[in-house]
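Pasting as-is:
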Amino acid sequence: MDGWLFLGAAMLLSIERICYVWIWRAPAAFRAMCAGPLVVEVADPVDALRFLFYGFKVLQLGVFVTWCSVYGGGTLWPPHGGAFSIGLGGALLLTGQSLNLSVFHRLGNVGVFYGNRFGYAVSWCREFPFSMFKHPQYVGALLSIWGFFLIMRFPSGDWYLLPALETVYYGVGALLENDTRSFQPVTHAGLRP
């Protein structure tokens, strides 16, 4: 394994988690940045965060595809991991994406993209998937990542490295986003937090 490639992947993948933790803990600063002169037509922080979300997913997928291509000898064809790894990987991917879609269904864009941190009224949800997981979107993302690498890299020796790294990143992010001691809500044009 190339240590430089792993370090580069780790740095690129950390950008998403660092941004989300910063935005969660400093919503006023993010809102101010969205209203600043450098941002064009994305003044609402929920819309800006949704835009970042899609950008982060493109970056994440780019890192994963690059990893698979480099360690797959220039091809994206999965190694012969067998029906078990493909079946389990596919099941994890489907389960993960189902969790993510159900989070979007329950919360909508405002709820998913930290609207409560920006002063929008967002109701607390206790229905599935929140009835099963504290962070169902993170669980869904991780299941999807593990499933992807089971399909694309198993049984190669590197198959678990990026999923394990992402598990650490998502876990630390979830812990840091739960700590709201420094949280100061930001009100939004007539809405109360």
